[in-house]
Amino acid sequence: MNNKYINLKKGEKAAKYSTFANLALAVMKLVVGLLSGSIALIADGVHSFSDIFASVAVYIGLKLSQKEPDEKFQYGYYKFETLASLIISVIIILTGFEIVVDSVKSIITPTQMTIPLVVITASIISILVSYLLSRYKEKVGNEINSPALINDGKHSFVDVFSSLIVFLGILFSFIGYPIFQGFAGFGVALLIIYIGLKYGKQDILILLDANIDPKTVDTIKSIAINLDGVEGVHNIKIRRSGPYVLAELHIETERKYTIQKGDEISKKLESLIRNELKNLDSLLIKVDPSNKTLIKIAVPVDKENGFSSTISKHFGKAPYYLIAEIDKNQIKSYIVKKILVKFRNKKRA
Questions:
Q1: Which of 58, 78, 219, 225 has the lowest tally of Cβ within 10 angstroms?
Q2: CB-side exposure of 330: number of CA atoms within 13 Å?
């Protein structure tokens, strides 16, 4: 099994552990919230259930991404992972709106909770577990370059703040201000909706093959243009497919090079790019001979004064000639030479 599928397996394992941990958190918060009457903790429990669906979506996406390319999906199944990430974003947004509704109800009709110490303990456990999950998923996501797992880790990090807000709301309710639970839930909801919209937009751009990483384009261009034998580089295109990048580019080599030499340059360039971009899956390099066409022109001039010289009216009688080298309509160099031999008109007999 190659490293690519080992990484996907690692991500799948992280998503599975996250699912079990979120399930335990959700059950704990919902049970304690229902028994105590804590609206904020119930909302946080509902939020944790959304995390379960998100983790399951990531798990399914990473599982499907491990399938080998076939006749129907010739570029592989990697985009299932991005699709899973988009599902996460949608779930986050819907959950945010649901918590907004519950929070407004709690503000309008605040209720005092029971068993406050148990509620506070459950809230503290939620903060700690969410933080550990967030660090774990982001670490694995960055190791395997999985946007879905990274997004899920950021979602868990949002849970840390949301659980902290819930904790403060519960604490204020404990000291006699139950309305703060509703405000806590409302603040959490706004944060959740913002995160969902932000990452949902990125997922859609990836699925539409948009270039969301111009730095990678600059990296490829820099490597190519600095390679000996490469005269020019253009048409660099990249797109993401799940955790991987697919790229293509055209390079120009000197016209004197043989096809074999051009192929050698192409292979060397591919090796350099792959060493730099660890998440590169597919790379297509098209090699063309350089379009550079150097021409020389000679212009008769009356004085040796560079480009300020006056063009002579007589080609044969001009004392000097300005000789310039031009490439792609640009003057590369020039020189003014004195004519030692003059042409004379012969008199007719």
A1: 225
A2: 3
